[in-house]
Design a protein that fits this description.
The chain contains 5 helices and 4 strands, in the order βααβααβαβ. The chain has a 4-stranded parallel β-sheet. It is globular and about 45 Å long. By secondary structure, the chain is of the alpha/beta class.
């Protein structure tokens, strides 16, 4: 499965780059266990941030940022087979969970819930 890792990135950081980087690192920490179970981990920021930078994004929260970041996750979810929702307040992650449930794909809240790929 391709599994979207959803959790806080910008939320609660006051747009502090160091805090946002720490949040991304927490999201990325789930990638190896997912891969080790035989799946492909995906994080929306892995895709969205390079797009935003090359499109000319200047500062977190600018018009281009809002035009790219959350819509990228929405597009990715059309190709994902599941979502891993990590703890922490995040409107974007809650939206990812909502979309996953609308699509009828599993939402996991712990890596241990994700089945090993046979």
């Amino acid at each position: 499965m391709m599994i979207l890792i959803a959790g806080p990135y910008r939320s609660g950081t006051g747009d502090d780059p160091a805090r946002m980087e720490a949040n991304l690192k927490r999201l990325e920490e789930a990638s190896w266990p997912i891969f080790a179970k035989g799946h492909v981990p995906m994080i929306g920021e892995w895709v969205a941030l390079p797009i935003w930078h090359t499109a000319g994004g200047q500062s977190v929260g600018d018009e281009l940022y809002d035009h790219i970041l959350h819509p990228t996750a929405g597009r990715l979810l059309q190709h994902c087979d599941a979502v891993l929702r990590l703890p922490g307040e995040s409107k974007g992650a809650e939206n990812d969970v909502r979309v996953a449930r609308e699509r009828g794909i599993p939402v996991y809240f712990d890596i241990a819930e994700i089945p090993d790929h046979a």
